[in-house]
Design brief:
Oligomer: single chain
Distance between the termini: 32 Å
Strand content: 15-25%
Helix content: 40-55%
Structural class: alpha/beta
CATH superfamily of the largest domain: P-loop containing nucleotide triphosphate hydrolases
CATH topology of the largest domain: Rossmann fold
Number of helices: 13
Shape: globular
Order of helices and strands: HHEHEHEEEHEEEHEHHHHHHH
Mean pLDDT: 87
Number of domains: 2
Length: 297
């Protein structure tokens, strides 16, 4: 998967590794950056490489929840309402520029992301397995954006940023083949059964007691008020451990090392934290300082 993704996304090996780690952990992925750096291309490449059915929805201010979920339409022949599923019933939903939609439409994703099901007119409809939301969003400073509520941000296992390419990578982009054409050439490296098997393998990755002590020390340090307004919740701790297990699997190991926790700490937790006054707006810098202050097991 990683080798194939590098043919489309150039010079961003660390971001690709984080993205694959997120999906192997069974989590939803949020990609945040300015327009034009490859957010949507990365989402398309991940969906095609995993060999899953995917649908793309361009989020706009007038997008309604029924445009995502679907609607019950009266059928004269059946003398009743028949549910017509929307694009949400794909295995991978590419939610492009998710923060351009209204909060009402954003909240329509909550049940689907957490419960892997939706309810319409009192009837529950299960979503296909596996199911992922890969969302892109623009910086809040740009016009026409609505900040995602904390409850929805918490549903994303990771938040990643691509950033501008390096000089050598940008030259490859300028001289290379069109990215859309390269996307069409991608062949699935997995299928649904293969991906589910890898997700089950994540559960078998061993975690030692000293590593759990270190994880609890990390969680406790975020809660002492020195670094952040509010600390990480137990659910965030479980997400961090799950991501660390997936990172160990990507690295070819059957046990979690401290470096696995440190590698995924910022992508998994920065969007869940608000820095303390005077610590800046970005939680990444306080998190790195926190890691430096804690002794390794």
């Amino acid at each position: 998967m990683l080798q194939q993704l590098t043919t489309v996304i150039v010079g961003k090996d660390d971001v690709l590794r984080d993205a694959v780690t997120c999906l192997l952990a069974g989590g939803h992925l949020l990609i945040e950056d300015v327009p034009g750096v490859g957010k949507t291309t990365l989402a398309h490449a991940l969906a095609r490489t995993m060999g899953l059915r995917f649908a793309r929805v361009q989020f706009t201010a007038d997008l309604m929840p029924s445009d995502l979920i679907g609607a019950a339409v009266y059928d004269r022949e059946r003398h009743g309402f028949v549910f017509h599923p929307g694009p949400l019933f794909a295995q991978v939903l590419l939610a492009d520029e998710i923060n351009r939609a209204s909060p009402r439409t954003q909240s329509a994703l909550l049940e689907a992301m957490e419960e892997r099901q939706v309810s319409v007119d009192g009837v529950t409809h299960p979503l296909p397995q596996p199911f992922f939301v890969i969302a892109t969003q623009n910086p809040f400073e740009q016009l026409g954006t609505h900040g995602l509520p904390e409850s929805q941000l918490d549903r994303f296992l990771m938040r990643l940023s691509l950033g501008y390419p390096g000089r050598a990578a940008e030259r490859m982009l300028l001289r290379g083949e069109d990215r859309r054409r390269l996307l069409l050439q991608l062949t699935p490296a997995l299928d649904a059964d293969g991906l589910l098997a890898l997700q089950q393998a994540v559960d078998t990755v061993a975690v030692s007691e000293p590593l759990l002590d270190y994880l609890q020390a990390l969680l406790g340090a975020t809660r002492d008020g020195r670094w952040f307004v509010h600390g990480l919740s137990p659910r965030a701790g479980l997400a961090l451990l799950r991501a660390a297990r997936a990172r160990a699997l990507v690295q070819g190991r059957d046990y979690v090392a401290p470096d696995d926790l440190i590698d995924v700490l910022v992508p998994v937790t920065a969007h869940r934290l608000v820095p303390a006054p005077g610590a800046g707006r970005d939680a990444a810098a306080p998190l790195r300082a926190l890691v430096q202050a804690l002794p390794l097991p």
